[in-house]
Design brief:
Layout (H helix, E strand, L loop, with lengths): L1 H25 L2 E3 L22 E2 L9 E5 L9 H4 L4 H6 L5 H4 L2 H6 L5 E2 L7 E2 L1 E5 L17 E11 L3 E10 L1 E6 L2 E6 L8 E2 L1 E7 L2 E11 L5 E6 L1 H6 L1 E3 L6 H8 L4 E2 L7 E2 H6 L1
Parallel strand pairs: 1-12
Antiparallel strand pairs: 2-11, 3-6, 4-5, 7-13, 7-15, 8-12, 8-14, 9-10, 9-13, 16-17
């Protein structure tokens, strides 16, 4: 009986340590089975309540550098009304849309195509690298109005192999995330604080360059968007922008990742293809 009790105690301790160690990744709701089906592109996750909120303030891998338009889309009609509208397509005359911006081909087009949202919505936006503070509950506010705004932000994730990753988004208010031309996350509900999440999302990364597009729409009050992955993913991948501080530096970092082999087996890049 004594041996059984000790064994039970050891098992209980091991289970507790396992739960504690995985708390960061799996305690909140885990969304699986993505990318989102066509009829769920604008549907909130279920469940999606306050009881899912989990504080990730102690996480050190929140992403701080992003590539995107140099300012926000301004004077929106509110994130609920704007969410179904592809503001990237609107601003580029359909040259780049949200789906294509989350691919290498679309991302490379931003070398030559600015975003023209008109004087009422922020004017013409060139592309640049910008940095945010994950602890700042207003990190979307990059000059200009602080309410009724939309932010578009891109990172490139260089993965050593095909892998499953867990991403954890925090946002106020409406967040939409695409990876490699597919939508993986849609949620109109704010997460509660800048480093608090409601959901972990299981996503698939391919070997090589993966383009992630994060769109966040803010109505009023706090305005933030944040993202981190599970520790194993951060240990394995390299995320760009890394050292870059502007558009030129960003493309210097990622262009080596865009090499493809066309039928003739001569190595080229998407940039070369586009110029031809």
């Amino acid at each position: 009986m004594k041996k059984f009790s000790i064994f039970t105690f050891v098992i209980a301790i091991a289970f507790t340590l396992l739960i504690t160690g995985s708390h960061q990744v799996f305690a909140a709701d885990l969304i699986q089975g993505g990318p989102l089906a066509e009829d769920a592109q604008l549907a909130d996750p279920d469940p999606n309540g306050d009881d899912l909120r989990e504080d990730h303030a102690d996480v050190e891998t929140w992403i701080t550098k992003w590539y995107g338009p140099e300012g926000n889309y301004e004077n929106s009609n509110g994130f609920g009304d704007e969410a179904p509208i592809d503001l990237m397509a609107v601003g580029t005359g359909d040259k780049i849309d949200q789906v294509s911006l989350s691919t290498l081909e679309g991302l490379l087009m931003t070398q030559d195509v600015d975003v023209e949202w008109g004087d009422d919505h922020g004017g013409t936006r060139a592309w640049t690298v910008f940095e945010i503070d994950p602890a700042d509950g207003d990190n979307m506010n990059r000059g200009g109005p602080v309410d009724d705004i939309e932010t578009y932000a891109v990172i490139v994730i260089d993965s050593p192999k095909d892998m499953t990753a867990i991403m954890s988004p925090a946002h106020d208010d409406y967040a939409q995330i695409w990876i490699n031309g597919e939508k993986w996350y849609n949620n109109s509900r704010w997460t509660g604080a800048a480093r608090t999440i409601l959901h972990n999302v299981e996503v698939e990364l391919q070997k090589g360059a993966n383009v992630l597009l994060y769109r966040c729409g803010e109505g009023g009050g706090s305005a933030y968007f944040n993202l981190h992955f599970d520790d194993a993913t951060h240990d394995a991948v390299t995320i760009y922008p890394k050292d870059a501080t502007d558009k030129a530096g960003f493309f210097d970092e990622i262009l080596p990742l865009t090499a493809v082999e066309p039928a003739g087996k001569l190595t080229t890049t998407w940039a070369d293809i586009k110029r031809k």
